Amino acid sequence: MYPFIRYATTIAHAALQVKKGNTLGFDDVSEITLRCRLTDIDNFLEMNNGRVLTLYDLGRTDFAVRTGLGKQLLKQRWGLVVAGSTIQYRKRIRAFQKVTMKTQIVGFDARWIYVEQSMWVKGKPCSSALLRTGVTEGGKVVETARVLAALDKSDWHLAPEPWVQEWIDGDKDHRWPPME
After folding, report:
1. Cα–Cα dist 174/160, whole Å
2. pTM (2 decimals)?
3. CA–CA distance, 36 with 20 (Å, rounded to integer)
4. Is there a domain that residue 57 lies in?
5. Residue 137, burial from CB neighbour count under 10 angstroms (0-12, 13-18, 19+)
6. CB 81 within 8 Å of CB 133
7. Best exposed site among 7, 12, 54, 155 by fewest CB in 10 Å?
8. Which domain holds residue 42?
C-alpha cells in the first residue's frame, strides 16, 4: 500500500521548513530522514526494493515543496511524472534503521529533469537512483523552459553530467517488448 500518511507528513514538514525560511534552490540537495518500518521490509527482513522506489517519492516531494515547484504545480495545475529510472543497491537497509535520503537535480534538457536520489545508513550509501522526471499538463510533458520560467529560473542551465548523458544515450537503444 502507498504510504499516504508518510507522504502527507513529508508535505507538512517541507511546508513548515519553507515557512521557517529553509527553502532550497534547484542546485541544492534535499535531505530527509526516515526509519525503515515493518511495512517496508520483505521476507528477508530488509527494505523491499519496490518500497525503496516508493519512498524516493517522498524525497522528490520534499525537494519540490522546498524549491517552490510544489506551489507552481498547484497554481498551474501541473503534475509530475517519472518517465524512466535506473537504480543500484549496495547495502541492505534493515528494519528500524534510520535512513537519510538525498535528492538533487543532476541535469535537464528541453523536456526532462534528471534527478539523483540516494539512501544512506550510518554514513554509508545503500542505494542510488537516477530518474528521468517531467512536469505534465493535460497528460503531456511541459517544456523545461516553461517550468523554469514559472519559477523565475529562466537563466538556470544544467547540462546532464557525463554519466547521466551516457544513461540518456543508452536508454535510446532500449528494446521494448515485441507487440503480440
Report:
1. 19
2. 0.94
3. 27
4. yes
5. middle
6. yes
7. 155
8. 4-171
